[in-house]
Specification:
Keywords: ATP synthesis, ATP-binding, Bacterial flagellum biogenesis, Bacterial flagellum protein export, Cytoplasm, Hydrogen ion transport, Hydrolase, Ion transport, Nucleotide-binding, Protein transport, Translocase, Transport
Subcellular location: Cytoplasm
EC number: 7.1.2.2
Distance between the termini: 113 Å
Shape: elongated
CATH class of the largest domain: Alpha Beta
GO cellular component, one term: cytoplasm
Main location: cytoplasm
Number of domains: 3
Helix content: 25-40%
Largest sheet: 9 strands, mixed
Number of helices: 14
Strand content: 15-25%
Number of strands: 20
Length: 473
């Protein structure tokens, strides 16, 4: 048998009920042969090409949603994914925005939809398809294949989240502490220090491996993040990059590729930190793909499949089966117009194990990380705090709330010291607390936030008249 394409006709694939004609028998025979012989390749015919998708006929009976097809365009193999199947054929969304094909060309069925991660991938940079883009040569393949769209571990067989860990970021370890295997979101508008906070978390020494997915980032920022933010920690990190100019298929795939890599290291028993920046751009890409497939929008232009894809992605992070490692997921969420109740932010917040809110007003005051401790929550904090620590944090939260609620009153001069002892105490403590929580990516990592805060709060308040000569007696 020769290595020639097998192309079925559009009419044959569209008819739901047919008599067993000679053509049918030949098609079935070829299908069985294709399953057993690698020399046989099954393909369809390109019938329509648009800026958003490619229509292929002749394969409707052999495909399912999510399958991949390949197009041989010159020396490289270009891939696309099936996003819709109907009587007219299959709708294919290409991974390459510059795919140059025309009607009549062949789209081949592509069976490989998995990665084979290896320990040697640490320190490497990949694209969303798992191909190296750092110029350091090909990647070694591991023994086990990991699917891009793998199912999360069974809920009843998963290990419990119980092991506290230190992020090294003082305000997080104090007010929203994390556990190994926890999934937390960083909710922020643009320009409030989200990337800086992520880089501080990536430097945490509480993890064996860091897997980073940069989704829809500016091309300029990728190298800066790798060389400046990761710095010496780059050797233990695997980075998956899909820049803003790439196709929505690549931007949608990048977090899934990062999760497949993270699952490999988790199964080796390692503690993995997964950072996805940002899940919002994953949602935008998923919306673009769904709209191209003809799906109707339901909420602010988002399609129903967006809200079903998000939990599938997020649930893959977390603890593995008992005896394996864990994936601690940090997912950044870019809130449009600082609206923290937009449909995507609301859906993600309800799925994760906590959320850290970055506040523009705090950033405007020069306090970084600009974490709003009053609106940030870690649902596993009680597994980390002792009873004494919990009471201290609750007291500090109450002081901050009292301090902020009366800010306008104090600025107008409407409060006299002594009128409210609790407020007097907050006025004395909260500014020192704010100052102690300031931290940059160049500062040393926090090792014991409660001791550091205790030292800062015990320092005497500076006397504004200190250093001035005493008036003559």
């Amino acid at each position: 048998m020769t290595d020639t394409p097998t192309v079925t006709t559009p009419d044959a694939s569209a008819a739901p009920h047919r008599d067993a004609t000679a053509l049918d028998r030949m098609e079935d025979h070829i299908g069985r042969a294709a399953a057993s012989l690698s020399l046989v390749r099954v393909g369809g015919v390109v019938t329509q090409v648009t800026p958003a998708y490619v229509q292929v006929s002749g394969l409707s009976r052999r495909l399912k949603l999510g399958d991949r097809l390949s197009f041989e365009t010159g020396p490289t193999l270009q891939l696309g994914e099936v996003v819709r199947i109907d009587g007219a054929g299959a709708t294919i969304k290409p991974f390459d925005v510059n795919l140059k094909i025309g009607p009549g060309e062949i789209a081949w069925q592509h069976s490989d939809q998995s990665l084979r991660p290896d320990v040697s991938w640490k320190g490497r940079v990949l694209n969303a398809l798992g191909a190296p883009i750092d110029g350091l040569g090909p990647l070694a393949e591991g023994a086990r294949a990991y699917a891009f769209d793998a199912e999360p571990p069974s809920a009843l067989n998963r290990d419990r989240v119980r092991e506290p860990l230190r992020s090294g970021v003082r305000v997080i370890d104090l007010f929203t502490p994390l556990c190994a295997g926890q999934r937390i979101g960083i909710f922020a508008g643009s320009g409030v220090g989200k990337s800086t906070l992520l880089s501080m978390l990536a430097r945490s020494q509480g993890f064996d491996t860091v897997v980073l997915a940069l989704v829809g980032e500016r091309g300029r920022e990728v190298r800066e993040f790798l060389e400046d933010a990761l710095a010496q920690n780059r050797a233990r990190a695997v980075t998956v990059v899909s820049t803003s100019d790439e196709s929505p298929m690549m931007r949608r795939l990048a977090p899934k590729t990062a999760l497949a890599v993270a699952e490999f290291f988790r199964d080796r028993g390692e503690s993995v930190l997964l950072i996805v920046d940002s899940v919002t751009r994953f949602a935008h890409a998923t919306r673009e793909v769904a709209l191209a497939a003809g799906e109707a929008p339901v909420a602010r232009g988002y399609t129903p499949s967006v809200f079903s894809e998000l939990p599938k992605l997020l649930e893959r992070a977390g603890p593995g089966l008992e005896g394996t490692g864990s994936i601690t997921g940090v997912f950044s969420v870019l809130v449009d117009g600082d609206d923290h109740n937009d449909p995507i932010a609301d859906s993600i917040r309800g799925t994760l194990d906590g959320h850290i809110v970055l506040d523009r007003k705090i950033a405007d005051q020069g306090r970084y990380p600009a974490v709003n401790v009053l609106t940030s929550v870690s649902r596993l904090a009680n597994a980390v705090w002792s009873e004494e620590q919990r009471k201290l944090v609750m007291m500090l939260r109450a002081m901050i709330a009292h301090f902020e609620d009366t800010r306008d009153l104090r600025l107008m001069g409407g409060y006299q010291k002594g009128a409210d002892p609790e407020l007097d105490k907050a006025i004395d403590i909260v500014p020192k607390l704010y100052e102690s929580m300031k931290q940059t990516m160049f500062d040393p990592q926090s090792t014991d936030p409660f001791q550091e805060i205790a030292r800062a709060l015990s320092e005497p308040k500076e006397d504004p008249n200190a250093g001035q000569a005493a008036p003559p007696g």
